[in-house]
Amino acid sequence: MSDAAAVQSPWQTASIVRIEKRTPRVTSFFFQPSRPFAYRAGQHVDVRLTAPDGYQARRSYSIASAPETHGVIELAIEKLDDGEVSPFFHEVAAVGDEIELRGPLGGHFVWPEDESGPLVLVGGGSGVVPLMSMLRHRAARNSAVPVVLVFSVRVWDEVIFHDELIVLDERQDGFDLVLTLTREAARRPADYARRVDVAMMVQAMTRLPEPPGIAFVCGSNAFVSAAAQALIDAGVAAEIIRTERYGV
Amino acid sequence: MVTRGFSSGRRPPTDGDARIPPGQYLEQGFPVLSAGPTPRVRTEDWSFTLKHGPRPIKKWNWTEFNALPMTKMTRDIHCVTAWTKFDTPWQGVLVDDILADAGVEPPTGFTLAHAFDGYTTNVPVTDLTAGKAMVALLYEGKPITPDHGGPARLLVPHLYFWKSAKWLNGLQFTTRDEPGFWELRGYHIYGDPWREQRYTDDP
Fold first, then answer.
1. Average pLDDT per consecutive 10 residues, chain A (248 residues; last block may be shorter)
2. Looking at beta carbons, which residues of chain A come within 8 Å of B4?
3. Is the ipTM of this complex over 0.90?
4. Bond before A104 cis per omega within 30 degrees
5. Among A52, A74, A202, B80, which lies 20 to 30 A Cα-Cα from B93?
6. Do A107 and B185 touch (CB under 8 A)?
C-alpha cells in the first residue's frame, strides 16, 4: 500500500509479559504491543509465527482483556493437540518472547454498549473469551446494563476465569452467571448439569429485567448452532443474535 | 521476523503446497462460520431474484431454478480464518447460465449478493462470469446442508470464502462497487487469497 497512513492494523511485534495457566487446557498470554492500540470488547487479533525457512502460520484469537487495559492485551489460548500454533504457545512460548500480531480486527462481534439494552452472553468452552472482554469492560465502566452469561463447559476445572466470574456474580450489580457442566454435577445451587437447551434459555431470560437487546454466542460450531437455536426457541429474535464460531 | 522456537516442522504434512495461498493451512474437515444463527430455508419458500439496482430483472422459484443448466465445479476453497480445503465438489448453475436465462448482458460492472438472513457481499461481474462462479445447489452430490448455506449458496472459489454467500436469494447489479456485510466491518473489498487481501487495509 502506498499510503501508509491508511493502514489501520499493520503487523507489529508484541512482547509476552506474563503467562497464566487458566485451566488444564487454556493458558492466558499477556502481550505488550510495541504500538498499543484501542479496541472494542469482542474484537480479535491475528497472530503470526515465522519459521527460519520463512514458513508462516497465522491464527485469530479473541481478546479476553477489557479495552481499558489496552496497553497489555490478554489472549486465552486453548491447546489443540493437532494444531500448529496453539501447541507452540503452550510448549515453547515464554515471557520475553516477541510475537508478531495485528489488530484490532472484526467489526461484528462487538458490544455496542449502552445502545443495545440487556445483554445475553452464551459461551461454550473457550468461546467465553470475547464475552469475558465484554464483562470486564462492563465492570470497568461500572455499567448498569443487565447481563446474563450462560457458560457451558464439560467439567468445573474447565471454567475459564472462574474466580473472577464468581466475584463479578457476587457484586449483584445486574450481572448474573449461569454455569452449566455437561459431564459433571452442578456445584452451585442455580447452575445446571446438562447441555444448553430451550428451558435453560427461558430461565436465563427471567434473570433479566426486560427482554434482551442483543445476544452474543461463541464457541464451536455445534455449540453455537444449538445455543442460537435454543435462544430463538426461547423467544429471542434471530436478528439480535450475533455468533462467532471456531469453525470446527 | 523469525519466531523463537517455531519451525515449519509443525506444519501438517501436505504434497500440495503450491495450492495453499500465503498464510493459509490445509484443512481436511469443512469448518462452519457465520455471523448469526443458521436460517432454515425451505425449498418451497426459496426464490432467487436477479436485480439491476432496485429493479427486478427476473425471479426464479426452486423448481424453475433447478431446471436451468447444471454444471459441476471442483475447486480449492480458502477461508479468511486461514484454512484452505482442496477439491471441494459442487454442482449448480453458472452465473453465465443465469444471465443467459434472463436474457441480459451485465448492465454494470459490480454486483451485491444477497442472502435470506440479510447478509450481503460484493463481487465484481468479471469474477462471476466466464465460468468462474455459480449458484451451488449440491455439495458432494447431495443438497447443501443449512450450516453450509443450503438450499443455495454463491460459489466464487478464487476469492476468500466469505464472498461465497450462504442462503443466497439474489444477485443485484450495482453502479458502484458497494461494500457488503463483512466489507463494511473491516474485511477487504475484493478478497484475493493469493494477494492475502484479508482486511480493509491490505494492499
1. 48 97 97 95 96 90 93 95 92 97 93 84 97 96 95 97 96 96 94 97 96 96 95 96 84
2. 92, 97-98
3. no
4. yes
5. B80
6. yes
